[in-house]
Design a protein that fits this description.
Strand 1 and strand 2 form a beta hairpin. It contains 15 helices and three strands. It has a three-stranded antiparallel sheet. With about 350 residues, it is mainly alpha-helical. Helices cover about 60% and strands about 5% of the residues. The radius of gyration is 25 Å and the shape is flat.
């Protein structure tokens, strides 16, 4: 961009900022919006910057309408106003506010809030059923047992599986469910057996309904091993060929999850405090999993990951406050297939 064009763009942006400030009623919100527009991390040279300023102004206008003072702004309140998707789209203003107002931002808390909203929305779809109160007792029982190993997302998956199963049974009460109902449902939805297992235990213990999942023929160990080896080889080849940082991080996350059989979401939440250097090798989660990586994978780990931002996340996402999402990982894995 020529110096004259750059000056003209800056002038248009300044005028657009001024026009949008007039639409904000509270001085503290105006000050935040001005600070954001002058923020050094905002890409001001973008050709569509004037239209982007309008979109950012809408974000701050929502805060202007919803909050009475800066002390009200935190992660929970922003989620209530914008929802998870709105916060993802507004990753730059969110990053700015978190820095300027110095409030804590936890990716795990955002996931919990998102899952709670999904749980409440799903409850609305069956609250008029004759068995709704009975099923709610099962959900309440899950919440009583919530622990680090039973996350909010897991509760939501168990709830959805149980509600869909009872609805498919077409019964008036939970005690009317039979083994035939279960076998018919799992024949159509075999992948739901794990998510239904806690519900089957609950029915047996509280309602005396004895259900047994159909026996499944296990895959031979050699088949599982061949599948795992093929996936690890594919991910390794793509990782060696990639040059884009986010794609590299996504591939490393998938590779660690596959090699050490750790949930991808847990890998993505890894922080620099959970990695130690021991005799030239890297140890992940030394207090819990104690996973040791060395050789070429350790080299690639150091190259792409061991320069974390202030919050310590290694698999950093677009807004720098949250890790890469599992959806983003799947996207990068799909794109990286074209490299080999």
């Amino acid at each position: 961009m020529s110096p004259c064009a750059e000056c003209a763009l800056k002038d248009r942006v300044r005028r657009r900022v001024g026009l949008n400030i007039e639409l904000l009623e509270q001085p503290w919100v105006r000050s935040l919006f001005e600070g954001f527009c002058a923020w050094q991390e905002l890409p001001k040279a973008a050709l569509n910057m004037t239209s982007r300023i309008d979109h950012y102004a809408v974000f701050f206008a929502e805060i202007d309408r919803s909050c009475g003072g800066p002390q009200e702004l935190n992660q929970k309140r922003l989620f209530e106003i914008f929802g998870a998707e709105g916060l993802r789209r507004a990753f730059l203003p969110v990053s700015f506010l978190s820095q300027r107002l110095a409030f804590e931002w936890k990716a795990s808390a955002l996931e919990d809030m998102t899952e709670l909203r999904r749980i409440h929305e799903h409850q609305k779809t069956w609250r008029e059923r004759t068995w709704a109160t009975e099923l709610q007792r099962y959900i309440d029982d899950l919440w009583r047992r919530t622990s680090p190993t039973l996350r909010t997302k897991t509760v939501r998956m168990y709830q959805v599986a149980a509600a869909n199963f009872v609805d498919a049974c077409d019964v008036l009460t939970l005690c009317a469910i039979t083994q035939a109902h279960l076998e018919r449902h799992l024949k159509r939805h075999p992948s739901q057996v794990t998510n239904l297992s806690p519900f089957m235990r609950y029915l047996r213990q509280l309602w005396g309904v004895k259900l047994q999942p159909p026996k499944k023929t296990p895959r031979s160990r050699s088949t599982k091993d061949r599948t795992l080896i093929a996936r690890v080889q594919s991910l390794t080849q793509r990782l060696e060929a990639v040059s884009e940082p986010r794609s590299a991080r996504a591939l490393i996350a998938a590779l660690v999850a596959a090699l050490y059989q750790v949930q991808l979401t847990e890998v993505l939440a890894l922080s620099s405090q959970e990695v130690t250097d021991k005799n030239g090798a890297l140890v992940l989660w030394p207090a819990t999993h104690d996973i040791r990586i060395d050789g070429r994978l350790a080299e690639l780990f150091r190259r792409w990951l061991l320069i974390p931002p202030a919050n310590g996340l290694l698999f950093i996402g677009r807004n720098r406050l949250q890790p890469l999402s599992d959806h983003a990982v799947r996207y990068h894995l799909q794109v990286s297939r074209t490299l080999i």
